[in-house]
Amino acid sequence: MADTQTPGGQTLLFLTDEQLRKGIEAMFFAYRGFTADPDRILEEYRLGRAHHRALHFISRAPGTTVNNLLSILGVTKQSLNRVLRTLIDDGLVESRVGTRDKRERHLFLTDSGIALEQELSTAQRERMRQAYREAGPEAVQGFRTVLEAMMDPELRQHFNRGRDSGDE
Amino acid sequence: MADTQTPGGQTLLFLTDEQLRKGIEAMFFAYRGFTADPDRILEEYRLGRAHHRALHFISRAPGTTVNNLLSILGVTKQSLNRVLRTLIDDGLVESRVGTRDKRERHLFLTDSGIALEQELSTAQRERMRQAYREAGPEAVQGFRTVLEAMMDPELRQHFNRGRDSGDE
DNA sequence: CTTGGAAAGTCAACAACACTGACATAAAAC
DNA sequence: GTTTTATGTCAGTGTTGTTGACTTTCCAAG
What domain range includes position A89? Predict the structure, then answer.
């Protein structure tokens, strides 16, 4: 990777369009691999990727409100509602009316919801673990750093809110 | 990052579910950022992400056949056909009957196709460049390594076929 | 205490883009 | 000359996004 030090000590990167394009394609192909395993499982349950995302974030923050989920997922409430409706009808998610504010719905996974989320999550984690193993520890650190730098600032907040239990 | 050396010299990584889940979320949020800029541009042209992907790979390999594009993009011919027809009708892509094999159609960008692809590509490259700059050279290397390890083997072939002009 | 606006969620209709299945045409391969 | 391959098309379906219109609930200003 071409880089030099300026007199001031700052590292400059000279990136050709070709190198950047390669990174773009890597994102494209990798994302396909990233979603492939869960997609296969979801098919059996007649659910889609949107359901997976909802399950994931509800699992991570049980009791979260619809509104909070909306801002994380970045879709319209109508779109999310259809997804939640399916999950609730399928008995995977439970929606409890808020006690403090009755307009809010707090979302929880049911036992079967937890089971499915685990199944999906495990498949995806195994892919990730495999990739991490193959690439090595320094690569993993770089991977995470670049991904974070690629996020919109608002999404980065969401990302950093669900705090890491400190491995770095 | 926790890692140790085995007596044999192999590096082992001990990855918690939490660390892996964090990587999963990073992919999710980063991919959103990754597509955000092109999506905005595409909206003005009333095109979608599928059109962008087609433009990208035609630009990358001018004269490519429909079949080749199909295997890269991993969609059905019916799906790709709808996209290509729009692009051809909009005068962005030209389809030429093959000379050696007249069953094949070779795909090329028109001048306006090249212009749009450039516009999209530039926006996406700028995001990537920004992220690379922010993360630094070692991070970029790791980023690419992990992404490649995450791909399905078949897709990895496609990725490596469009060869890099040697920066590593 | 009432009223009016904001917030949360729901219902209906529509669009983009993926899918399957069936079929047509032309050219190449055997 | 039959089969296979490459491409295109038509019809139908599903997921996931969109907007617009609506109800219920909450809260705060009068």
Answer: 17-143
